[in-house]
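Re: the 175-residue chain
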Amino acid sequence: MDRPGLIGVVRDLYEASDLNRRFLHVRFAPTTVGLEKYRRLVRDAVFPNPFSQRPIRLREATAIVTEYKRATGDLAGAVDLMLEFVEAGTEQAADLGYGSDSYFAALERKVNDIVRALDSLSEADRRAATDRLAKLGEYQGVIGWGYCDFLADIAVKVQNRNGGSIRKRHRRHGV
């Protein structure tokens, strides 16, 4: 295929759907605005406005994270989106009392994915992700289903890997 033909295919793909437009924008013009758009999409799928009558769409949120990672190859951005997923789900469970075994299992899978990715991040990105994981530990005692215990265990695991900053923070907050 010649250059004009290839450009025509890309244009057709761009015009075909919102998903293609998002993918092409983040692939060829990556910006913090693009990552922020993905954050909003993840949050809206995991924790839609309770008055909107929209369903919770965890699979869609997972697909959005995967789409971002495939489009950009940006592991730090993908971890950021997974953290957004977990934070939104945890907030929803705490604020609205929402939850089920499958819901918390999905949140736990995301946390485990984040922990597995930590060693591949830069020091600054790892520290930021670790801080966000530690902040999730502040929900201890607010959510049942063993989920808060899981978050506390993860905080200890991450603390042991990254030198103690989480333990100090938890002691300060009484966790």
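DSSP finds nine helices and no strands in the chain.
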